């Protein structure tokens, strides 16, 4: 219906609508406004839970929590259909869903699975023994679990979410209880927890986020949470096999303590996972480690590199090359450092080498890159130095290199050397080394 405009006429002309006509139009306008704005909502309160959230869910409606809704003793739960459920409150201090029954689950899936779980501005308090908030399986693998400004207060467990496309928490809180959430099945779109706080938890051997049966994260799991853990609990318990791509377990700006104490060496914060793992990308964190992509390799046992032809490059040799602190890199052979990840791809190469050879010969140390996609090598940098004629039998050239390069997955850096003056062999001395690190 179109808006009913009231004809007010001109001032003091008494030629406009009568009071009856004016109020008829006013009522019509308010009726239309009311219907347009509220026909898509269902108000839920304590007196009607059996016919609203406890009944068959209408996925085309938004369920509005009017105060505290207590499911205790009702035998009711929220069965989420394939079309999903939409729940909003006024604030998490005013609007709550609570239950203290034992062996209780608040959200369950209908036969065949559930659709989107969308909620905002309410609190959940599921406090009974062996009870949990969620036991949900995605009907198609393409739905979302997205919550904004939701607090979990003293919950025994958050339960399990299985096979959803993606999860999102914005402004969530976990206060008290043991709010462990299990993620199971394949997640195609990732899970992001943004601006979230955790405080006052009960102690116990549990984790805030846990890998369940068949858990595989095809995209990223990302967090910047502010967490204080009790003595025995952990942040997340994932393993490399749970992530299908490098650098997709992303911890950025996390603040985490245990009983108020920060300790980045605490291995129980992330059991079965380290910052150095290929699927980890952790930076800017306080109270947990950070990832430093790169590593170093150096000469720990010398051997001469045979020069067969003047000016021809040979792989720089050592009896033993020793690598250290490799994160997203490995040492497949010789002095090679190979990039195993796919991001970042911008790196610096620092080299500090002392090379022995014939006095006054000119040596060139070459930093090269093997491009795995093109199956070819290219030169990053050549640096030439003259062998110093030092007192005694030790005549050496000194090389100091600082150069940028890009390394995609399976590309590697390696060192070669040439004698530009003679065929005198060259020897890289012990403690010579080079480093690859993210720019």
Explain how this protein is built.
This protein is mainly beta and 439 residues long. The protein has three domains: 1-39; 40-283; 294-438, Jelly Rolls. The chain contains one helix and 38 strands. The chain has one helix spanning 19-38; strands at residues 41-44, 62-65, 68-70, 78-80, 85-88, 96-99, 105-109, 117-126, 132-137, 144-153, 159-162, 166-170, 173-175, 181-184, 186-187, 190-194, 197-199, 207-211, 216-217, 221-223, 226-229, 234-237, 249-252, 255-258, 280-283, 294-301, 304-305, 314-315, 320-327, 329-330, 337-339, 346-356, 362-371, 376-386, 396-406, 412-419, 426-428, 433-438. It has a 16-stranded parallel beta sheet that branches. Strands 4-7-9-11-14-18-22 form a seven-stranded parallel beta sheet, with no helix packed on it. The longest helix has 20 residues, at 19-38. The mean pLDDT is 93.
Please describe the topology of this protein:
Elements: H1 19-38, E1 41-44, E2 62-65, E3 68-70, E4 78-80, E5 85-88, E6 96-99, E7 105-109, E8 117-126, E9 132-137, E10 144-153, E11 159-162, E12 166-170, E13 173-175, E14 181-184, E15 186-187, E16 190-194, E17 197-199, E18 207-211, E19 216-217, E20 221-223, E21 226-229, E22 234-237, E23 249-252, E24 255-258, E25 280-283, E26 294-301, E27 304-305, E28 314-315, E29 320-327, E30 329-330, E31 337-339, E32 346-356, E33 362-371, E34 376-386, E35 396-406, E36 412-419, E37 426-428, E38 433-438
Parallel strand pairs: 1-2, 2-5, 3-6, 4-7, 5-8, 6-8, 7-9, 8-10, 9-11, 10-12, 10-13, 11-14, 12-16, 13-17, 14-18, 15-19, 16-20, 17-21, 18-22, 20-23, 21-24, 23-25
Antiparallel strand pairs: 26-29, 26-38, 27-37, 28-36, 30-31, 31-36, 32-35, 32-37, 32-38, 33-34, 33-36
């Amino acid at each position: 219906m179109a808006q009913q405009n009231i004809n007010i006429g001109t001032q003091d002309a008494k030629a406009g609508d009568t009071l009856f006509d004016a109020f008829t139009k006013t009522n019509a306008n308010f009726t239309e406004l009311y219907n347009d704005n509220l026909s898509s909502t269902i108000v839920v309160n304590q007196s009607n839970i059996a016919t609203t959230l406890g009944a068959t869910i209408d996925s085309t409606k938004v369920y509005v929590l009017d105060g505290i809704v207590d499911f205790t003793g009702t035998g009711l739960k929220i069965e989420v259909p394939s079309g999903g459920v939409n729940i909003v409150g006024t604030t998490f201090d005013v609007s709550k869903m609570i239950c203290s029954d034992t062996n209780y689950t608040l959200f369950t899936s209908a036969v065949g699975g559930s659709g989107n779980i969308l909620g905002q501005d309410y609190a959940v308090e599921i406090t009974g023994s062996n009870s949990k908030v969620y036991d949900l399986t995605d009907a198609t693998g393409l739905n979302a679990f997205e919550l904004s400004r939701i607090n979990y207060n003293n919950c025994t467990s958050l339960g399990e979410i299985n096979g959803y496309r993606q999860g999102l928490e914005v402004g969530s809180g976990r206060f008290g209880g043991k709010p462990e959430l299990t993620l199971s099945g394949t997640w195609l779109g990732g899970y992001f927890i943004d601006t979230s706080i955790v405080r006052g938890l009960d102690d116990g051997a549990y984790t805030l986020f846990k890998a369940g049966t068949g858990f595989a994260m095809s995209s990223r799991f990302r967090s910047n949470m502010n967490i204080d853990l009790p003595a025995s609990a952990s942040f997340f318990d994932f393993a490399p096999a749970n992530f299908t791509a490098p650098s997709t377990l992303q911890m950025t700006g996390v603040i985490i303590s245990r009983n108020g104490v920060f300790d980045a060496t605490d291995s129980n914060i992330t059991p079965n996972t380290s910052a150095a793992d290929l699927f980890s990308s952790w930076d800017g964190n306080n109270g947990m480690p950070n990832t430093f992509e790169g590593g170093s390799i150096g000469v720990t046992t010398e051997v001469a590199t045979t020069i067969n032809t003047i000016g021809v490059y040979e792989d720089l040799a050592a009896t033993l090359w020793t690598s250290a602190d490799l994160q997203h890199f490995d040492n497949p052979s010789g002095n090679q450092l190979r990039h195993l990840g796919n991001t970042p791809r911008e790196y610096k190469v620092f080299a500090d080498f002392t090379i022995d050879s014939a006095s006054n010969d000119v040596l060139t140390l070459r930093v090269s890159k093997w491009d795995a996609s093109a199956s070819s090598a290219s030169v990053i940098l050549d640096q030439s130095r003259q062998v110093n004629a030092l007192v005694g039998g030790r005549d050496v050239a000194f090389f100091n290199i600082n150069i940028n390069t890009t390394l995609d997955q399976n590309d590697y850096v390696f060192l070669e050397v040439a004698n530009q003056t003679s065929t005198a062999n060259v020897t890289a001395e012990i403690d010579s080394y080079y480093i690859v690190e993210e720019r």
